[in-house]
Amino acid sequence: MSKRSFASDNNAGVHAEIIEAIRNANDGHVIAYGGDPITARAMELFHKYFGNDVAVYFVFGGTGANVLGLKAITKSFHAILCSESAHVHVDEAGAPEKFTGCKLITIPTLDGKLRVEQIKPMLHGIGVEHHVQPRVIQISQVTEMGTIYTPQELKTLADFAHDNGMLLHVDGARLANAAVALNATFKEITADVGVDVLSFGGTKNGMMYGEAVVFFDKSLAGDFKYIRKQGMHLPSKMRFISAQFEALLSGDLWRRSAMHANRMAQVLGSELAKVPKIKLTQPVESNGVFATIPKEYIPVLQEKYFFYVWDDAISEVRFMASFDTSEDDIRDFVEFVKQIVK
Fold first, then answer.
1. How far apart (Å, rounded) are the C-alpha atoms in residues 263 and 80?
2. Separation CA 85–CA 318 (nearest Å)
3. Are 286 and 320 in contact (CB under 8 A)?
């Protein structure tokens, strides 16, 4: 097996309990497109965690979840306000703009988090026909910088959005990591604070594939079943996504995996901070470690360990821990770093 990298939690394999759930689901014939008992049980788990009134739709991947969720709540003359580091802006190849027709308005942030005072100046054109109309505040929880919104920060954004005729959309690819870091339930950092639409991620927390679009107001879902089909994200053999979510949510697998990844990042961050020429650039709040390393050392390190350069201008890199990152992985990597970065 190849050496574990620190590039992305997407690079990790699939948790053994998820593999077992897929294997168990592979028995006989069931009704396709979600009409099976496994999907029904998975839906009940989403209601348990997020509230009985939510509408839930499973899709294949995170970009599809974000794009289709945003499309359901916007019209082409709307604007989506997001951080300049947001996944919808940086890592989705323009798909949100292509499929929603909306303009993404990006806002610079040092830590990936949007704040009301940054958003207010973007609302000057409301009601003016010459300008796109702000419709959605779009954030990530965990942010792309590894930072986490507190429940109060989320509520402040949601209240501001609603007071100004907007909605709050959350890219929750790493929502499990945020929940365990905050010692909060999923509901406490979504429904209870006013989130309108959520992309709930499973892939980064040990699933093989599969995400969920969660509407906290069913009326916002509208014709989403048609939007999902047109968007090519209606799984015919949905039971294999549903089985993964059932395994993730029926016990504490989601919590165990996210908590372990967060803890490994804490260990990695604390060890790297001891290397004199390495400086952490963000607090380690979830499963990501951001740091600056002198540029000349990065290619040498990457020959043995794969990781991404986050900001080439300041020689900032990103290291991600996963559910399967071990302390031995970290020890070996840090020892190698100490040999190179002198």
1. 34
2. 13
3. no
Kindly indicate the confidence band of residue 152, based on its pLDDT and cuts at 50, 70 and 90.
very high
Amino acid identity for residue 278 in this structure: I
C-alpha triplet 12, 13, 16: angle, nearest 5°? 135
Each residue of 293-325: pLDDT tens digit? 999 999 999 999 999 999 999 999 999 999 999
Are 112 and 144 in contact by the 8 Å Cβ rule? The answer is yes
Query: What's the whole-model pTM score?
Result: 0.97
Per-residue pLDDT band for 267 (boundaries 50, 70, 90) equals very high
Helix axis angle, 253-272 relative to 327-340, nearest 10°?
20
In whole angstroms, what is the distance from residue 285 CA to residue 292 CA? 17
Q: Which of 312, 255, 319 is nearest to 282 (CA)?
A: 319
Does the pLDDT at position 26 exceed 90?
yes
Domains, in order of start, for the chain: 16-250 (3.40.640.10), 253-340 (3.90.1150.10)
Q: What type of residue is 99?
A: F
